[in-house]
Amino acid sequence: MQAVAEKVIARAKELLASGEVQRVLGWEKGEFDYERTPALFEQGNIDKLVYDKFCAANLSKKLVEVSKLEGKTLALIKPCDSLSLNQLLCEHRVKRENIYVLGVGCKGMEGKDGLCMKCEFCKGKNFAISDEVIDDESCREVPQSDRFAAVRELEEKTPEERYAFWRSELSKCIRCNACRNVCPACTCIKCVFDNPDSGVAAKANVDTFEENQFHIIRAFHVAGRCTDCGECSRVCPQGIPLHLLNRKFIKDMDTLYGDYQAGEDAEARHPLINFTKADAEPSVVLNRGE
Amino acid sequence: MQSTVKEFKPLIVAFCCNWCSYAGADLAGSSRLSYPADVKIIRVPCSCRVNPLFILRAFQRGADGVILCGCHPGDCHYTSGNYYARRRMTLLFSMLDYLGVDRRRVRVEWVSAAEGARFASVMNDFAATIHELGENVKLEDLRCKQ
Lengths: 290, 146
What we know:
heterodimer, A: alpha/beta, two-stranded antiparallel sheet, 12 helices, about 35% helix, about 10% strand, globular, B: alpha/beta, Rossmann fold, four-stranded parallel beta sheet, about 40% helix
């Protein structure tokens, strides 16, 4: 990791110095030891660029705004982030000609409490999109894990237990919007949750429909486009396992409509904007055994 | 003291597509077939007009059951609307089940304009199911402080 990190930083500096890119999108040291904040670097502050085991933040969403700037931007993209970026490119949210994608090898990122949840369930070390890749053998080992195990465990409970589980989890929500703001699939210019008529748009004490069912609606909005990057759960200050909602949709779509990984293939149509005449009827849910 | 037992009157929301199921409901009416008055019909241009949020909103406002009726697959007035609706609703129903809402409270039925009798029997059957299940869990409480 150390060797890869040094190469990455050296290459970023080289590209910036040669004028091939005008700025670099990377990470800088944050407030805490385990925190790395996404930041833009130019010739003056490039020395602050870091790449280490705490760079968990997914930078692809930042490119929606950054790629509108004049000139090229070098983006440091980890394998899982490349899926999000590819999905954004396929939705025409990022200007491809304005970015230079440097794929950076990753051995799993850490946060305050050790290995990130998303890295525990690593989706692979291949880059869905890149102009150049810097990694080594040790960055290509994929840990074996079953990302749907927790979903299955929950499915096996009784409806009352599930309701109690979600009620206690979602009750913790303080409606800080961190999950929405960090989500690479949430890039609508006008979000359904920003209701200017409420006067206190997006505050927890509002008792409108959107507030109450925020998480269910958000999960449905990103269904089919969610790459399961796990950023929502990572940033949640209340520790709500939001990825369990997204994974439920992914699991259902995989079972009903065939395996699909959002962002893997920019040409593919995701399951919710596609159909076949032989699709399962909604009654499959009813007929499922307990 | 006289005590009164409050009878459970379910609130059932039925989204019916304008071209098939709504006409089917019309036919049920003109054929003098009865279906429960608990069913409130909302006419939509196509079954795929039904945003999953509509169903969540119905539950949040106290609906005990929601049923979506559209043209039979292959017969959509707009060629393919009901195919998209079918996928969306399957996923939504699965998600509602995951959240602990009884899966018998939501249903999709394909009813054509010629199937007045089927419309009445579908509604009678669904209303009977909801009657049996009783009141729905309060979905609006999903994110309320315990």
